[in-house]
Amino acid sequence: MNEVFMGKKNSELVRGNKSLSSKKWVAASLAGVLWIMPVIGSTGPSLFSLGSASVAQAATASFSVTKLSEEVITSGAMMMKYKFTTVRSGKSVTGLADVVRVDLNNPYVSVDVMTGKGGNLTTRQSTGGMAAETGAVAAVNGDYFNTGGEGAPIGGQVSGGVVVSTPSQLDGMYAFAVTKDRKPVIDEYTFEGMLTAEDGSQFPLSGINKGAYNPEGGSSTYSHANAAYIYTDAWTALERPKNSSTTPTEVLVENDIVTQISPDAALPITVPKGAYILRTHGLAAQFVKAHLVVGQKLSSVYTLRSKTTQQEFDPSTLQMMIGGHTILVNNGKAATFSRSTSSIGGYRARTALGYSEDGRYVYVIAAEKNNNSAGLSLTELQSFMTNIGVWKGINLDGGGSTTMVDRPLAETSTTLTFNTEYGTEQRSIVNGLGVYTSAPQGEVKGIKISGSSVLLIGQKATYSLKGYDTYYNPIDVAAANPAWSSSGGSVTVNAGEATAVKAGTVNLKATSGSASAETKVTVLGGDDLTSLTSSTTTAPLIAGASVSVPVNAVSKSGATIAVPAASLKWEFIGFKGNVGDGKLTVESVDPGVTTGYAIARYDGFSTAVVFSAAASTAWENFENATYPFAFTTNAAGVTGTAAVVPGSAERAGSKVLSLSYDMTAGTGKMYAYAQFNGTTGKSIPATATSMSVDVMGDMSLNWLRAEVTDASGATAYIDLAKVIDWNGWKNLNIDLSGSGIKFPASLKRLYVVNVEEGQDERAKTGTVAFDNISFVMPSLSSEAGLPKGTASMSIGAKSMLVNGTKQAIDVAPIVKDGSTYVPIKYVLDAFGGNAIWDQNTKKIMVLRGAKALDLTVNKKEFLLNGKRQSADVAPLILNGRTLVPLRLVTEQLGLTVKWEQITKTVTIES
C-alpha cells in the first residue's frame, strides 16, 4: 500500500467490471435499512447528522465473553459462537454473537464483496441469496445504503482491484479493505478523479456509480450539483440517479470514444456492456457542451486517498474494499466514534468487521438479537470486539439487516446462522461480505451424520451420511452404504430412516468400514413442552365444515416445532370427525350439541379446537359507524388523520378506517393513534378469544398494535403485527386467549408505533387502513346455552344448593392447607361442561365453553388451552373421587367464587 497511484483508465475499469461479474466471489452483506430523505432540489437534510463525534464509553468491568463452540467452515475459516454477559440497569443480561474468523495466512481462503444479483448494483438480494449465487461458504450483510434509492452502497466498494462504487463525501465513514498481498486495512478514503477531453481540457470526476446524497463539508447540499459521475455497466437501473436537482446532460462512452451526447436529458438506456455513461450537471454539463464531441476521445484517471495519511492508493493493489460506518476499535481499544451514532443506538443485532494485531485474522462479526439473545449497544459491541482479539474494527449496517449465513461442516450450501430480529426473514440489500475457498479436493478426513437433532414421538426422519476432506470441503459419501444403529429404545433406525418411539435421548450411529459418526437425537415428550397449539382455535360446528389444523409445539428451550400428523391422536366430543392432510372435517354433529371439541393429544399434552354454531361475531366494518374517530399522538411534531373514508381498489364501494401519519418532525418513540369514540372506545361486550381484522399495510416496517381497556380498568396492549412488512390488504388473526383481558372490555384505539431503537430502519410517514373487525366471543357462541345461576357448597357437607334446590353429592368439599377442594363433577353438572378422566395418567380434562383445562393429580402445573401454567395447589384423590382446587378451576372456566368464612360456605356464580 506504499505505491503512488499512477492513474487508471476508465476502459480498464469497465474491463475489470466484466471480470468481476464472471468471477466466483461472495460477500457478507450488512446493508439494508437506513432511511434517508430523498434529495429534491438543491437543499435538504444531510444523509447523516454528524454533530460532534460521540465518544465511545470505556468497556465496563461487568462485560464478559465466553466462547461456546467453534467449528471449521473450510480450510482457513472457523465459525465461533460466543456468549456475552453484561449488566443493564442493575440486571444481568446475556446474549450470543457469531464470529467467522478468516486466516489470511491460508492461501485457500479469501474475503470479497458480493453485490445484488449477478454482481450488479441496483439489484438487491438477501445475504443468503448472494452467498448461494457467488459460492460463498459464509457471508454477512454489508454497507449502509439509501433504501429509497436505486440500490448503491453509501461507502466505497472495490473488487479485484476494480472500483465498483466510490466513497461518498461524508466524514467519519470508515472502510475495510484487503490488499492483493493479503493485508487487512481499515481507513477513511476519499476519491479523486479527472476527465480529459481530446482538446486537453479537464474536469474533475466526482465519483463512480453513486446514488444522490447530501455531502458534508462541501459547498453544495446536493452531491451531483456541478459534478460529473461515471456509471458503468455494473449500474443496471435506468435512472442514474433519482431526484436530480437539475436536468442532466449524459454522455455515452465506448472504448474511450464519445458515441452519444444527450444535452439537457438523460439517455433513455441502461449502460451497455463494456461502456459507461458520464452523467453531468451544471458546470460539468457546460464542460461537456464546450469540449466533448461525438467521435472524439475522453479519458479518465482516478485514485483513492487515505484521509489519515493523505497517501494515494492504486485500487488495483486492493483485492476488495467494503464501506462501513464509524470506527469501533483502534489499537485493541474502544475508539472514539467517528460519526454520530444516535440514529443507530439501542440494543440491536449488530454487524462488524475487524482484524488482529498481526494482520493474520479477519473477524466477521454478527451479534444476535432474537428470542435467545438481548442484542448489543455499540459500546458493548466495542467491548465484545476487544475481548475476542480485534485490533482494529468498524461498524457495518446492522439492526434488522444483520444476517449471517455459513456452510456447516460437510454440507454443500449455506444456511442461516441464527434468526434475525424478524425471524427467518432476510432483507434484500445492496452488498455484503463473503468468505470464499479455492482449496483443491483433498482426501477423506471425516464423516458426519446430517439430520434433525430433535424429534417428536411418532415422527419419522431421514438421516444421511456426509463427508468432508482434508480442506474441510464437502465430499460425496453417498455410496458408502453405512450401517445404522441407535443407542437406546427412544429411536429405531433402518437404512437412515429413524422413527421416534418414546421420549428420551439417544446416540444415532453410522458406520462405514473403519469410519463412523455419531449424533445425539432427542425425542421430546409431553413434559418437555410448554405449549401445544393449533393455528385454528375455533371453527363452525356444521356437518361438512373443514378447517386447517396445523399444530405447533413449543419446547422448554423455546424452540417451535411443527407437530407431524403421525405424532398426534385426535378425539372428538359432540361430533364425529376426521383429520387428514392437515385438515379437520366435521362428519356429523351429535343431536342437541351446540359446542363441540376436537382434542389433539401428544404424550399427555393436549390442546383443543372449539367448534361452535356461531364461531365469529362481526364487530365493526365501518359502513354505519356513527361514533367519532380522532387522530392522537404522544409526541410533539407528529401529525396525521384518522377517519372513515371510502375504500379504493379492492375495497371500492365499502368504507374503511384510514390512519395517516407524519412523524418526520417528531423525536423518540412515536405513536400515531386512531382513537375510537372519544376516550371511552367501543365496547367488546363478551369474552373474546381471538380477533380478526383486515389491514392495508404501507411497508413502513413500523409496529401495529391495539389498545384495550378491560372491565377492571386495566390496559391491555395487543400486537397486531410486529412489523408492517406488506403493501395492500391482509387479514390478521390474533389469539387473545392468553391476554388476561377481563371482559366486557373496550377497544380504545388502533395505532402505529415507530420505536426509537433502530428508527433509521422504519418509515416516518405512511397510511394504514382497517376493515372488517370481528371477534370470536365464546359467551355469544361456544358458551351459548351453558347454565346460568348460583350453586352453594359447605365444607364437610355432602349436599349442595343449585339455584335454591338441594342436591346430594357423594364427596363433601374440604379445606386442605388453606385451599378449598370440590368434586368437579358437580360443578360441571350445575354450570355445564364435560370432564374426561384418564385412569392411567391420573389426568382430568375439563371442557367448558371455549376453555380446555388439563389437570393432573398431585401436580401444580396445568394446561389451559394448550399452554402450560403453574398454580399454588394441585388436584387430589379422596375416597376414590377426584377433588380439584375450587378457585383455580372455577376462575379458569369463567365462573366467580365467593367464600363465607362464618358458615364455611362456597358460592359459585355464572
Automatic annotation (TrEMBL):
Domain Phosphodiester glycosidase: 254-436
Residue ranges occupied by any Copper amine oxidase-like N-terminal domain in the UniProt entry: 802-908
InterPro entries the UniProt entry points to: Cu_amine_oxidase-like_N, Mao_N_sf, NAGPA
Coiled coil stretches, renumbered: none
Transmembrane segments: none
Gene3D superfamilies with a match to the protein in the record: 2.60.40.1080, Copper amine oxidase-like, N-terminal domain
A Pfam entry, by short name: Cu_amine_oxidN1
Source organism, top-level taxon: Bacteria
Listed name of the protein: Copper amine oxidase
Organism of origin: Paenibacillus phytohabitans
